[in-house]
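in:
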């Protein structure tokens, strides 16, 4: 690995997505096959039934067109009952187009004349009447001489002509037609199924690719959004873009706002599967153009400048195709992601370019999120430093008022932090304890100077005024939300473990832990520094005094930790040994 930590590339798509799309495809294909089969079967059955009717109608029409004109009927002769011409002409027509018999009937079904051997097929009176009314009718009839197709045609309002045809040729035509229809239906159904399955497969394949693309973008975006490390975001962008486009190199550069320089910050080498971290200025024309215009720039290169970017030569891939896509920001491009692949592998597909653009957009949002967070954090740190500086100025002013305790607040603050760490207090809570220690005597602003600077013991009234200073401090500090965490020390640092303290007479564990720690520190500092009414005590004597008051004035657990801390830091353990 060169300049960075190797991270395995993630392949696009997911097994779950492929399984889901395959299951969807096969389920939908099965239902499509069933539906098309049912529809094709119903349509085919209906069409097979219509084949017989159509064949009978066609045969009837053909006979009527040939036979009727040849009969040479004259309405006047028929009205006179002269059927000789009819008989003669009809006899000649027998056998033509499979005609077996021709009858002349009255409108009510009375037989007027007939020619041929079709008498075994009885006349259908209803068909005769229907023909007399509607002009034509037909009927398929079984007879001793075989199946017969009887057609009825109105000659005049009182006369109907019946023609009987041999049904066997018609039946053969029907059979042939049905077989042809069945084959056509089968072939059509097969073609329809193939087309539907092809369309379905293409749609499913597209859905799966879309799903894989969205999943890939989601995972990549989630990884970028989950960190506030700018280098990791750029590594993720370079790696994911190179992996998705099957590129040899993925490079991420940032545009410096102040200088306008392009700085190569992270990359991914697919050959070694390694990420690369640099802080190197680059000024290739295609990167610069992409960063300035915000538009995609494609550049075929015969000799890619590996040494200028990576710091070493790489002769494995030449010539190459270089794709540059801008990393968008709120006010314009903030960088460029560059992809390098051998020209022999072809150009970049549109869909992969779109994915890289979306990856760059997600990276842009994450980068600006990091920038905003950094600004907010710096502002908060500066503000906190300003607050802490203000607190120290305030305590310095208070020390000026009470020269006897000058430096006391700074000393107890430092020692409180040390003891809190000794007792494994959380770091954020230690900050509040430090501020509370700094401000613990701020309430003395409300105590008259005559009491604060009195060299002798205080009387009862003066003690009563002095005991109010924690309350004064609490009233002042409670108006500042920033200092809320400091209140336990400010309000309760004069409470005693046995309940004899002030101002609330709390006892034991009812006293906040922060105040129990500070009470030991405050007493220790008071004993080991000069006061108007006494001289400073040696450290060993002060520790002994604190130990004697363990369980009465002080929390025994805190006393043990404090004694251990002071003996170690002051070297008392070595002296005892």
């Amino acid at each position: 690995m060169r300049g960075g930590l190797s991270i395995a590339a993630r392949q696009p798509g997911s097994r779950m997505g492929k399984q889901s799309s395959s299951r969807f495809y096969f389920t939908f294909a099965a239902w499509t096959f069933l539906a098309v089969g049912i529809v094709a079967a119903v349509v085919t059955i209906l069409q097979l039934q219509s084949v017989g009717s159509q064949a009978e109608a066609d045969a009837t029409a053909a006979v009527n067109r040939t036979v009727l004109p040849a009969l040479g009927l004259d309405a006047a002769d028929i009205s006179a009952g002269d059927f000789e011409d009819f008989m003669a002409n009809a006899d000649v027509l027998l056998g033509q187009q499979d005609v077996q018999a021709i009858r002349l009937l009255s409108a009510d079904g009375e037989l007027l004349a007939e020619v041929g051997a079709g008498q075994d097929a009885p006349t259908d009176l209803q068909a005769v009447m229907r023909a007399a009314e509607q002009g034509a009718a037909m009927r398929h009839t079984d007879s001793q001489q075989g199946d017969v197709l009887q057609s009825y045609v109105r000659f005049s309002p009182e006369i109907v002509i019946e023609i009987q045809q041999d049904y066997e040729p018609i039946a053969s035509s029907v059979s042939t037609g049905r077989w042809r229809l069945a084959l056509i239906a089968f072939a059509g159904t097969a073609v329809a199924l193939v087309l539907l399955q092809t369309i379905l497969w293409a749609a499913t394949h597209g859905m799966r690719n879309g799903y894989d693309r969205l999943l890939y973008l989601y995972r990549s975006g989630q990884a970028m959004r989950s960190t506030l490390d700018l280098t990791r975001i750029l590594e993720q962008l370079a790696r994911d873009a190179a992996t998705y486009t099957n590129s040899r190199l993925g490079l991420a550069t940032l545009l410096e706002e102040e200088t306008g320089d392009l700085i190569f910050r992270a990359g991914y080498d697919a050959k070694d599967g390694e990420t690369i971290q640099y802080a190197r200025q680059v000024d290739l024309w295609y990167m610069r153009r992409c960063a300035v215009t915000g538009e995609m720039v494609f550049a075929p290169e015969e000799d890619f400048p590996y040494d200028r970017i990576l710091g070493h030569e790489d002769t494995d891939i030449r010539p190459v195709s270089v794709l540059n896509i801008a990393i968008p920001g709120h006010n314009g491009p903030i960088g460029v992601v560059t992809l390098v692949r051998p020209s022999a592998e072809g150009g970049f597909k549109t869909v992969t370019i779109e994915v890289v653009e979306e990856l760059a957009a997600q990276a842009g949002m994450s980068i600006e999120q990091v920038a905003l967070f950094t600004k907010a954090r710096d502002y908060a740190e500066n503000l906190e430093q300003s607050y802490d500086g203000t607190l120290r100025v305030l305590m310095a002013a208070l020390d000026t008022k009470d020269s006897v305790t000058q430096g006391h607040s700074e000393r107890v603050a430092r020692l409180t932090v040390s003891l809190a760490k000794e007792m494994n207090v959380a770091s954020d809570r230690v900050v509040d304890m430090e501020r509370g220690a700094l401000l613990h005597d701020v309430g003395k602003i409300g105590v008259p100077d005559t009491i604060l600077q009195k060299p002798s013991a205080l009387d009862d009234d003066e003690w009563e005024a002095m005991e109010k200073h924690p309350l004064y401090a609490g009233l002042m500090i409670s108006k500042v939300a920033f200092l809320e965490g400091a209140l336990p020390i400010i309000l309760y640092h004069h409470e005693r473990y046995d309940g004899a303290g002030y101002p609330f007479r709390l006892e034991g564990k009812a006293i906040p832990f922060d105040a129990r720690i500070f009470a030991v520190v405050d007493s220790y500092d008071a004993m080991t520094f000069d006061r108007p009414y006494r001289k400073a005590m040696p450290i060993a004597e002060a520790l002994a005094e604190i130990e004697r008051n363990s369980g009465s004035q002080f929390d025994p657990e805190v006393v043990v930790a404090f004694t251990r801390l002071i003996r170690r830091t002051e070297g008392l353990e070595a002296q005892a040994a």
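note: Residues 220 and 235 are 11 Å apart (CA to CA).
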